[in-house]
Amino acid sequence: MFMRTAATFAAVVAMSAVLSTAAYAQQQDGTAAHSPIDLGKTTFAQKCSHCHGPNMVTSGTVTPDLRRFPDDQPRFVTTVKQGKNGRMPPWGDILSDDEITALWAYVSSRRAQ
Ligand code: HEC
């Protein structure tokens, strides 16, 4: 009787471990696919990288090196929405606030210390 209970208990423990591992893996995947940094990275590759360099790697001579952009979100949002000096194009009508926030998350993640 005792053996049987112990075996059942062990089986239940093993089962719930498997289930929670699966749930965890699923949540991890979902989070990774929708993280702001990933969205920002995709948007950057589509809209910004031909001027600012793939993955922000640029000589920084023609366009500023965004890895050196200061930790100044309002300035970033203003420049991206309105453009700058007729050389940096305005994106306010093209990108949503969420996309610009995601770009900021991506830029911040690449900041050189
Ligand atoms: C057509 C080329 C071009 C594209 C495309 C472009 N930029 Fe720029 N960007 C520039 C240039 C040139 C400057 C420098 C402007 C200046 O300071 O005169 C600049 C400056 C900037 C700055 C610094 C502004 C500041 O306040 O110092 C940021 C941030 C920036 N760009 C972000 C972006 C983002 C994000 C995208 C994509 C949505 C993007 N850029 C797309 C050319 C581009």
From TrEMBL:
Organism: Bradyrhizobium aeschynomenes
A Pfam family per the record: Cytochrome_CBB3
Sorted UniProt keywords: Heme, Iron, Metal-binding, Signal
PANTHER family (UniProt xref): CBB3-TYPE CYTOCHROME C OXIDASE SUBUNIT FIXP (PTHR33751), CYTOCHROME BC1 COMPLEX CYTOCHROME C SUBUNIT (PTHR33751:SF13)
Protein name: Cytochrome c
Signal peptide coordinates: 1-25
Keyword RNA-binding assigned: no
Keyword Iron: yes
Every Cytochrome c domain range: 35-111
Source organism superkingdom: Bacteria
